[in-house]
Amino acid sequence: MTERASVVDDEGLLPQLVAHLREHRTRLRQEWAGRIHEAHLLQAMTAQEMAAETTSVYDNYVEVLETGSVEALQHYARDLSERIIPRGVETHEVVGIVLLLRDVLARSLFEKYQRDFPHLNRVLDAYEPAANRIANTVAVSFVDERERVIRQQQDSIRELSTPVLPVRERLLILPIIGVLDQQRARQLTEQLLTGIRTHRAKVVVIDITGVPDVDETVANHLVQTVDASRLMGASVIITGLSPLIAQTLVTIGVDLSKMNTIGDLQGGLEEAERLLGYEVTRDSAAGGP
């Protein structure tokens, strides 16, 4: 059931208010656009984009005043956020333009009814709670959508920073570069286990040469990743283990003799090929007798 905002006591007041805002739509929208420009808001948008968005926001704003449909407002606010966030619009800009529209329309109502103060008070009593509710709903929806976009971007970055690469049949390599925090370690495990299942991998080489340090929690997670991979039938070789990380593993009680560790990535790949039954040969130096 659609929620309806209770904004008026007089049944005839709301249609009168909405009719006035629609009648003067062009002038009020232009005045609002001018205020936006003076406040240096939406500068990431072109003049054409701003004109289109201000027209759309104005019409939806007045429609919500008329219908009181919060669900429709939330849907529009989400749609607006999806369109303007990729253009670099910030949260304070969205809040700012909605508050400017609220004030422009309130001033217009004041000018229309200023000769009749009792009626003006009734109009403003009807308008202001609804206008504030619209501003709040738009702001909350924008923040929610922005956070969703940020989370999505962070997930994409993590996926790019921890790629599971098939080197050859049933052999995967997972090169890790940069800081390995708890969240990234969890995602690493999920990606690796998915890769093992997808590629039916038998050997995985995890190279941590590019990891400067890990804390105890992440070190435990790394051990759990090795154990989980084994449960899925894949042997794990860890390469690039620094003295500092090795010391951390020993400190938390990890038996390094149970982990297959190789000094560098090249050696790890050679060991992986041996485990898979391939014959490993090294090329002789060029030009030798």
User: How many DSSP-defined strands?
Assistant: 5
Element-level helix/strand string: HHHHHHEEHEHEHEH
| Terminal Cα span | 88 Å
Mean pLDDT: 83
Number of helices: 10
**Content-based structural category:** alpha/beta
**Low-confidence spans: pLDDT under 50, at least 5 residues?**
1-9, 284-289
Top CATH class of the largest domain: Mainly Alpha
How much helical structure, as a percent, in the residues?
A: 55-70%
Structural domain tally: 2
Shape: rod-shaped
Q: Largest beta sheet: what is the strand line-up?
A: 1-2-3-4-5
Q: Biggest sheet: strands, sense, closure?
A: 5 strands, mixed
**Which value, in Å, is the CA radius of gyration?**
31 Å
- Determine the CATH topology of the largest domain: Globin-like
Level-2 CATH architecture of the largest domain: Orthogonal Bundle
Pfam family, one: STAS
Domain STAS: 161-272
Keywords: Phosphoprotein
Protein name: RsbT co-antagonist protein RsbR
Structure description:
With 289 residues, the protein is α/β, with parallel strands linked by helices. The protein folds into two domains: 13-156, Globin-like; 165-275, Transcription Regulator spoIIAA (2-Layer Sandwich), CATH 3.30.750. It has ten helices and five strands, in the order H-H-H-H-H-H-E-E-H-E-H-E-H-E-H. It has helices at 13-23, 25-38, 47-67, 70-84, 91-113, 117-161, 182-199, 216-231, 243-251, 265-275, and strands at residues 165-168, 171-177, 203-210, 235-239, 260-262. A five-stranded mixed sheet has the order 1-2-3-4-5, sandwiched between helices. The relative contact order is 0.08. Mean pLDDT is 83; it is low at 1-9 and 284-289.
